[in-house]
From TrEMBL:
This is T-complex 11. Residues 181-202 are annotated as: Disordered. GO terms for cellular component: acrosomal vesicle; sperm flagellum. It comes from the Eukaryota. Belongs to the TCP11 family. Residues 190-202 have a biased composition (Low complexity). Coiled coil: none annotated. GO terms for biological process: protein kinase A signaling; regulation of sperm capacitation. Pfam families: Tcp11 (PF05794). The gene is TCP11.
Length: 430
């Protein structure tokens, strides 16, 4: 970092020295235009580089207005009109710049000092160059993406031609997803502790009754990958390249399930006044996230005991600070007990929150992330920001995978979905 700082200072000093030198040359009698000519040559090159291929008339105009041979002759006779040239350059920049640079160019029109003006022109042209680079990258992105998709698909087809069994695990994966959609999810037993906190919504209960379609089967298949047993080696062949990323998303999903469960249980003991404070909720989230990191290096029971004690202490302290009634010793013991058990899969809060995050991710695949955030199931609103990030990563990964392997998936899905239903969805919708 120190080296970078030093390098930056050296560059800045050198840069300043150039402008100081230019000023001395222009103030000399007679003026020396050698530096100014070099600068004008570079400005001309930048302006030409900003032109689109069809802008031939403007190209000719710039070539004529900044004809370096002519400018050199004028300089030799001491007749180089720098202010006039600067004004022409500014008017050309106004035509070429992105709207975001309009204000910067307009400000330069009020600068009268020739050196300050040329320096400002050079700085704004640097920004315009970056704008053009970014625009080019954005415009090429779809073509690059399409090329990448075609290459990956062709490579896989080559392998498939040599090894016809290459889609066996993928077929099993999609078959299991279709079966899952035909089987209702297990209901969570009503327990006194859990029913007061959360219960499945009607939309979740009805989720399993949707008719089979290629899009729904694929969505279910992708969701199943986030629960994949690491010991199960029958991972879909089409997703082997994405396995590490999916495992990372699975870890994030587990952390979010625990975080949302902790917050939900904590809110049921704290009351609406305390949980109506965004500062308190943010603080509790920070504490829980930091302590959850210990789950990676410590036994789970030990780490969750620390989480439960710390959260309980924070609630107790915040209730006191707000002049509210503190938790009774029985309630404190119940809170700590519930939080300690939150990571167990049979825990009802953990189970239902997990189902709801999966439902959210499924909606992301079908409807998109922003639409899915509009109607978050109960218990998830406190982790909206984290869910949006997880959903975006998951959608991006699955979208690229579907673009590459969509045709292979459709061939398999034709054998799994009744013809009448399969006809409703074309390959393009994948």
């Amino acid at each position: 970092k120190a080296a970078n700082g030093l390098e930056g200072r050296v560059k800045e000093t050198t840069h300043n020295a150039f402008w100081d030198h230019l000023e001395k040359q222009l103030l000399a009698i007679p003026p020396d235009f050698s530096c100014a000519l070099e600068l004008l040559r570079e400005i001309k090159e930048i302006l030409l580089s900003l032109l689109l291929p069809r802008q031939n008339r403007l190209r000719s105009e710039i070539e004529e207005a900044l004809d370096m041979n002519l400018l050199k002759q004028e300089a030799e006779h001491g007749a180089l009109n720098v202010p006039h040239l600067s004004k022409y350059i500014l008017s050309t920049m106004t035509l070429l710049c992105a709207p975001v640079r309009d204000e910067a160019v307009q400000k330069l029109e009020n600068v009268t000092d020739p050196v300050r003006l040329l320096r400002g022109i050079f700085q704004v042209l640097g920004l315009m160059k970056m704008d053009m680079v970014n625009y080019t990258i954005r415009s090429l992105q779809p073509q690059l993406q399409e090329h990448s998709v075609q290459c990956e698909r062709a490579k896989f087809q080559e392998l498939l031609n040599k090894q016809p069994s290459l889609l066996d695990h993928t077929t099993k994966w999609l078959t299991r997803a279709a079966a899952d959609l035909s089987t209702p999810p297990p209901s969570c037993p009503d327990t006194p502790d859990s029913s007061s906190v959360v219960c499945p919504s009607p939309s979740e209960a009805a989720n399993s009754l949707e008719p089979l379609s290629p899009k729904m089967v694929l969505s279910q298949g992708f969701l199943n990958l986030l629960l994949w047993d690491p010991e199960d080696e029958e991972f879909p062949e089409t997703l082997l390249m994405d396995r590490a990323q999916l495992q990372e998303l699975e870890a994030q999903l587990r952390q979010l399930t625990i975080l949302a469960s902790v917050l939900l249980v904590a809110s049921s003991f704290s009351g609406s006044v305390l949980f109506g404070s965004p500062q308190f909720v943010d603080k509790l989230k920070r504490i829980t996230k930091a302590l959850m990191e210990e789950l990676k290096s410590r036994p789970e029971e030990e780490a969750m005991l620390t989480v439960s004690e710390q959260v309980s202490q924070e609630i107790h302290q915040s209730l006191q600070n707000m002049g509210l009634a503190a938790l009774s010793s029985d309630n404190t013991a119940s809170l700590i007990g519930e939080l300690q058990n939150i990571t167990k899969k049979e825990n009802c809060v953990h189970s239902v929150i997990g189902q709801r995050i999966h439902l959210f991710l499924k909606c992301c695949l079908v409807l998109g992330v922003q639409r899915s955030l509009l109607d978050l199931p109960g218990g998830l609103t406190l982790i909206e920001v984290e869910l949006a990030e997880l959903g975006q990563k998951f959608v991006s990964l699955t979208h690229h995978n579907q673009q590459v392997f969509g045709p292979f998936y459709m061939e398999i899905l034709k054998t799994l979905i009744p013809p009448a239903q399969a006809l409703e969805t074309e390959v393009g919708s994948l």
